[in-house]
Design a protein that fits this description.
Blueprint: H1 3-23, E1 40-45, E2 51-57, E3 62-68, E4 73-80, E5 92-100, E6 110-114, E7 120-126
Antiparallel strand pairs: 1-4, 2-3, 2-7, 4-5, 5-6
């Protein structure tokens, strides 16, 4: 095989890999956003800063939606504009999922219609802490490592 053929094959392989990555969305869930302009937000709720996330309809000033994130978990929210064009009041879609803190990828399986970007505000409320972290099926509980054979 010639060097030109190898370079062409490598270029095609890289182009395909980049295309697959672009189609998958490459959304990385982390506080501060994904680094892309894809309207994805991640909120950590810790024992000393347990959080509520509130969507406010700015036309009425009323709470449209609220989620109380359990301590030790994160909430990922992503907005998609103009998903429900026939619905003038709530034309955007919001997808969200609660997951363990630090999870970088995953499916946002919950969805609902929300006001568009010009008519909604996302507020964060910190609850009185500390709160004990919740344990769920996807939470790993680690016990202390004791070398002396003592039990607690």
């Amino acid at each position: 095989m010639s060097n030109a053929s190898r370079r062409c094959g490598l270029a095609c392989l890289l182009t395909g890999a980049i295309g697959v990555a672009a189609l998958s969305g490459c959304a990385t869930y982390a506080p501060g956003g994904s680094g892309f302009s894809n309207d994805t937000y991640t909120y950590y709720s810790t024992p000393h800063e347990p959080k509520n996330i509130i969507i406010v309809d700015t036309r009425t000033g009323e709470r449209f939606w609220m989620y109380e994130i359990p301590a030790g978990r994160q909430l990922v929210v992503r907005f998609y504009e103009e998903q429900y064009r026939d619905n003038a009041y709530t034309p955007a879609a919001m997808r969200w999922e609660e997951m363990p803190i630090g999870q970088k990828y995953g499916t946002l399986s919950n969805v609902m219609a929300v006001p568009d970007a010009g008519c909604r505000r996302v507020d964060m409320d910190v609850r009185q802490g500390p709160e004990m972290p919740t344990t769920t099926a996807d939470t790993i509980i680690q016990s202390p490592n004791t070398d002396s054979g003592e039990s607690y």
